[in-house]
Amino acid sequence: MKKLLLSSAIALTATGALAQVDQDAPQGGEMVVTYQDDVATLDPAIGYDWQNWSMIKSLFDGLMGYEPGTTTLRNELAESHEISEDGLTHTFTLKDGIMFHNGREVTAEDVKYSLERVTDPETRSPGAGFFSMIDGFDTWNAGEGEGLSGVSVTDDKTVEITLSRPDATFGHVMALNFASIVPQEAVEEAGEDFGRQPVGSGAFQLAEWTPGQRLVFEAFEDYHRAGVPKLDQVTFNIGLDPTVALLRLQNGDADVPGDGIPPAQFLQVVNDAEYEDQIVEGGQLQTGYITMNTQMAPFDNVDVRKAVNMAINKDRIVQMINNRAVPANQPLPPTMPGYAEDYEGYAYDPEAAQQMLADAGFADGFDTELYVMNVDPNPRIAQAIQQDLSQIGINAEIRSLAQANVIAAGGEEDQAPMIWSGGMAWIADFPDPSNFYGPILGCAGATPGGWNWSWYCNEDIDQRAAEADAMVGDEDGREEAWRQIYLDIMEDAPWVPVFNEQRFTLHSNNVTGDDSLFVDPVHIPVNYDYIYSTEAQ
Amino acid sequence: MWGYLLRRLFESALILLGITFVTFILLYLVPADPARQIAGRSATAETVANIRDQLGLNDPLFVQYWRYLAGLFQGDMGRSYLQRAEVASLIMARLPASLMLMVTAIVTELIIGLTIGVVAALRRNKPADHSLMIFSFVAISAPQFVIGILLLYVFAVQLGWFPIGGYGTWAHFVLPSVTLGLLGAGWYSRMMRSSMIEVLNQDLVRTARAKGLSKLRIVTRHVMPNAILPIIAMIGIDIGLFMSGIVVVESVFGWPGIGQLAWQAIQRVDIPVIMGVTMVSATAIVLGNLLADLVAPLIDPRIKTK
Amino acid sequence: MSVATDPAARPRKPSRARVVLGELLRRPRAAFGLIIIALMVFAAVFAPWIMPQDPFAQSFDGLDLMGAPLPPGGDYLLGTDLLGRDLASRLILGTRTSLIIGVVANGIAVLLGAGVGITAGYFGGWTAAILMRFTDLMMAFPALLLAIVLAAIFQPSLMIVALVIAMVNWVQMSRVIYTETRSLAEREFIQVQRAIGSGPIRILFKHLLPHLLSSIIVFGTLGISTTVLLEATLSYLGVGVQPPMPSWGNIIFENQTYFSTAPWLVFFPGLLIVLLALGFNLVGDALRDILDPTLKGRH
């Protein structure tokens, strides 16, 4: 196990440095991926769960994208991307001859249409807020005006996007699924059903969708990158419990279980020599944490929050979930720029924690509640946390509820004193440190119905976050600024960062490719476009 | 008879109306805000307000309910908040699979359950009765997830007789029907046994015995028709259970039924889908019970439809 | 109503209880059932004194290095669960919750269902129409949704989950009893009673009920298994007992996906549920034989 962890850590640093895509990989063949849940939608303006996220990435392209298997930005549909000196004007030029699946060429007008569609209030896109830095967003998104004034088409191939404030994350925003380019005529023809009849310019096109059973993606012949995708066809079988998905894989009926290795069979599979070469481990841009509501006594006392930070035995929790995670000590995950390598965090020390609690006036501890989503292993983790808290005299009652109920409780200022975030935890939308701040730690998220469940709002830090995001062009300075922000947040201790989940992707011997493709940070579970078949010529 | 039927259909419509009302109120009481679910975690307060506005979630409860009813009467069940597709099409895509599994599972339960019940009643208090009793209790108490996976492992993976889950051919029906049927068989076998014993002690059987009729004839002609009455009532109930409560079996076998749709919708407060599925299963339950009440007098002529 | 469906509990003549109990103990199967029930009640009442270990302690040595639970044997009689807690102790403590659900909540549901069914079946007409359409309504009622709403409004408690179970579980019973009563009510022996002017209460309890006892017993005993498991589903949605409090149902529910790697976590609680239901079934069958007029003296 330990060896597995180490070797993959090396693999990660290597892939971070350079993309390892085998250009000579053979073409052809097919792959079968299984999922338990039905696919909600394939509309890039609407799909926002990890299952359809990577499917949409294969069906659609945006102006920007990522090098396969990495978090390195690259031009996707854009031939070039120029930024003005003040960082406010971004000029994108499209590549020549990019085709939509319906056979029409992609033009600059499509870019404008797509951005206006996703920010149009009538689209009800969950991603609209990401584009708030574009000039004219506020009026257009409020349902006024005629389109996004900040987006203008200069010629067939060129789009100029003006921002209302400089924003270093804009490149990542244009690589989000929400910024995918869609053809107006297809959207209008399908209406609300565009999510069932998607037309994009991605490497695959949708060939079949039988609800509740399967989806079939076929390679798009006119894709703008030669030799991509590698596979002719990807079939998604829907509705299968992960345990059954594993049986199918063992029987040769499936290649990648999309929901991962079921926790109950995890040890059995990783300890089985047969699967040694078929499991790829990688990091995830994810942190699991406990929130403490800073507006509710006694968690309004920073010493109480620090004491809780010292009371949690993270190693034990990680052991309990079969070492499928690494202990965390700060909000950012280790693979995120801005992660503080040498920060030590709050070490596990129940005696010191109890002392600190006593000094804060809670020598006898106190009663509180710990909210948790009801899907395994989260109630188990909550029970481990409960036992740790009881060591220092805190009696936490567990409220194990359906996801929607926990989210609703977290969005109330006075309802949930503590929440274990598992199952709802933050997974980055894009690999940038700012993405772990705004909605979950910033003042903007500390509103009724928001996701800042600590109700932590430090205006000084909010100010510094805004400044850091405006540092366009100074990558190192910006990274350092964010690093300091998260370390200062830890001084206020609104969270107990508990662990960063590791990904373990199992795949059959029929498909192969660089390991990084199987733990691609932006394509979960795998990068469908670049994986290839061992049976292809 | 026809008057009775008409009255029952009218009453059924009232019940369904009641169900829509109760469900609507419950959904209104769920603290989770559907607009938040749609907006996702990165949305601004304005975006959420806009979505609430567009879906009419700011209107008073009765206005919303009236709007829903008005749509329903025009055959419009609305669109899913999360999938954006029409609820009617989402349900119709899954209904055939649910209905067919329901039929095969009920046939399976009846075959296994009635056989066991009859044998146990005729061998009352003998070893066969005892082993069958234990079988029935185990079938009812065992988690369906475990039964399903075990059946898959033995008959699909090891023996390769059936596919590992999925939907399409007759072979796909066998294992899910058996998994579902075992639970029902447990119930039916116990019901059948007890009502057989009840009938066996009645005068008509004694009379038949006295007349010297053969045992087989007594059982098939006199005992079983009388004993099957409670089973008819059970089938009506079963129809309801199958329409709503087979999430686990659907998930284990990758069965594209409406249980999965309902479960996912409930967890994510997708109100139009929850309403739609509740309506469909309520209709099935009400009709199932109506059917049971209509069939009962045919089986037992003493019952009058009043 | 409850008086008559359980004659052993409150007999008309004080000596009758002893007679029935004596009858029961004379029958080996019934005596076996009584012993099972008595043992479980004993375990529930005296749980704190008979648990071998602390049922909440997540022992460091309760998991192996990879975090897998320990099989039966050694320090832990029935093995440990996924948090390294002693399974035997958790099962003993869980008896409390599961008995309340399986016996009390389920018992209320059975009595309610039998009462509604017998009343509707005997009187027919508008009484039946109203009662049975109400039953239909309750059967079609989205119980899981109700659970989610209750979970959000109330603090979770055993009381609420017991109420929900009693509220949703009586309907099946009432449908079956209704259908049977409709048939029985037209039989000669009931018609004769009506003709000689017996009051409805007397007919219901004295003449109808004995014939319905077997169905009631079947439902009552089988309902034990289903309600104990239903409790786990409802608790999962947040209305019932919350972790770390054990119940047989939630131990099965939480661990069922682990049955191939840690079968003891599913097998032992499942065995207890079967035993409890069997125990009640054996006693119930014997009771029926003792009380059923048509069977008198046939053993």
UniProtKB/TrEMBL annotation, chain A:
Residues 73-446 form the Solute-binding protein family domain. InterPro entries: Peptide/Ni-bd, SBP_5, SBP_5_dom. Residues 1-19 form the signal peptide. Gene3D superfamilies: Dipeptide-binding Protein, Domain 3, Periplasmic binding protein-like II. GO terms for cellular component: ATP-binding cassette (ABC) transporter complex; outer membrane-bounded periplasmic space. Pfam families: SBP_bac_5 (PF00496). It is found in: Periplasm. CDD domains: PBP2_NikA_DppA_OppA_like (cd00995). The keyword Signal applies. Keywords: Signal. PANTHER family: D,D-DIPEPTIDE-BINDING PERIPLASMIC PROTEIN DDPA-RELATED (PTHR30290:SF38), PERIPLASMIC BINDING COMPONENT OF ABC TRANSPORTER (PTHR30290). Belongs to the bacterial solute-binding protein 5 family. This is Heme-binding protein A. The lineage of its organism: Bacteria, Pseudomonadati, Pseudomonadota, Alphaproteobacteria, Rhodobacterales.
From TrEMBL, chain B:
Its main location: membrane. InterPro entries: BPD_transp_1_N, MetI-like, MetI-like_sf. It is found in: Cell membrane. GO terms for cellular component: plasma membrane. It comes from the Bacteria. The chain crosses the membrane at residues 12-30, 99-122, 134-155, 167-188, 227-253, 273-296. It is a multi-pass membrane protein. Keywords: Cell membrane, Membrane, Transmembrane, Transmembrane helix, Transport. The keyword DNA damage does not apply. This is Glutathione transport system permease protein GsiC. The gene is gsiC_2.
From TrEMBL, chain C:
It comes from Palleronia abyssalis. The chain crosses the membrane at residues 30-50, 99-123, 143-168, 212-238, 258-283. Belongs to the binding-protein-dependent transport system permease family. It comes from the Bacteria. The keyword Cell inner membrane does not apply. Coiled coil: none annotated. Residues 95-284 form the ABC transmembrane type-1 domain. Its main location: membrane. This is Glutathione transport system permease protein GsiD. GO terms for biological process: peptide transport; protein transport; transmembrane transport.
